[in-house]
Structure formats: structure tokens, C-alpha cells
Amino acid sequence: MTHRNAEFSRPSWYQGKVVPFVPSGWSRGFVMKTAVVFLLTACLLARASAGSRAESRRAQFDQWRQCMVDKLPTDKAPVFQGCHNTAAGTEMRKFRQGLECVLDSYQLVDRNNVNLARMTEVAPTIAKEELKKAFEDCPKDEGNKRVAKAVKCVIDHLETTCPQLSRSISKILWQSLRRKRST
């Protein structure tokens, strides 16, 4: 019976000591510099790919937002843009602020509350189907009396046919709303 390592033969240069990492003729300084350059390159590539992901998320959000704005009546789009452009904060906060101004243009907003009865009255006058459906359905839930909840309800109705945001983007967008509700 043969030993299991019998077919393994050691190279002729092996003398039972650790083989140095650096091949003969290369200085250790050269190897260290090469390693540093390799690590820096890897870091820069990782950062560049992260930046492109952020840009694609931004483009995806812009496409989603434009789809939502296109569902507003033509006379309300300038109202939305005016508030969106002057609002401060994240892009999602600006978007919600723009929708809040649209609700206010229908005389539905009183401070932090939405007049749900008036919202039902206004619904038949709205030409855009998704917004009309939102104005019919949102007053059915008394919790939508608060502006933030009413805006979220409108968004939920408008986004039904818009391109879906990825889960990570959607999660990021709604985190600020959850924080606002909990305070």
C-alpha cells in the first residue's frame, strides 16, 4: 500500500524552510508599493461603482417623480413645481411638499389637517383618473385626516402605473415619513 502523499514530490529548491513571498530579484519595497497601488485602485473602483449606483437610483427616482407629476391636472402641475422648487430637504420631502401644495390649491389643507369631506366634494371635478380615485378613496380612512397621511394616500393611488422603484430606494424614501409620524 502506498502512502497518500507518495505522489507529491517537493520541488528541488525546497529545503524545509518557508519560501519567501518576494520572488528573487524583486525588492520588498517594490512589492509593498505595488500592493499599495493595487489597494488604492480597488478602493477607487469600489467608490466609482457606488457612485454610479447612486446616479442610477437618482435617475430612477426622477423618472418615478415625473410619472407622478404627469398624473396631476395640467393646471396643478405649476403649483406642484413651484412648491417643489422652493421646498428644502430631501428630494422625497420636496416631492411631498409639492403634493401638499396641490391639496392646498383645492382648499383642502388647514394647518396639519385635511378636510376629508371637502376632498370627497372636489373628487367629481377632477379630470385625471388616478387623482380622482385618490380623492374618492382617501377620505374613507379617517387616519388620512393628517396632511402627511393624506399625501401618502395620494402617492399610493398615483403610483399604481408608474415604474416601480427598487425596494432599497422605496425604503429610503419612506423612512423620513415614518420618522416624522413617530415624533
TrEMBL record:
GO terms for molecular function: odorant binding. Gene3D superfamilies: Pheromone/general odorant binding protein domain. This is Uncharacterized protein. It comes from Amblyomma americanum (Lone star tick).
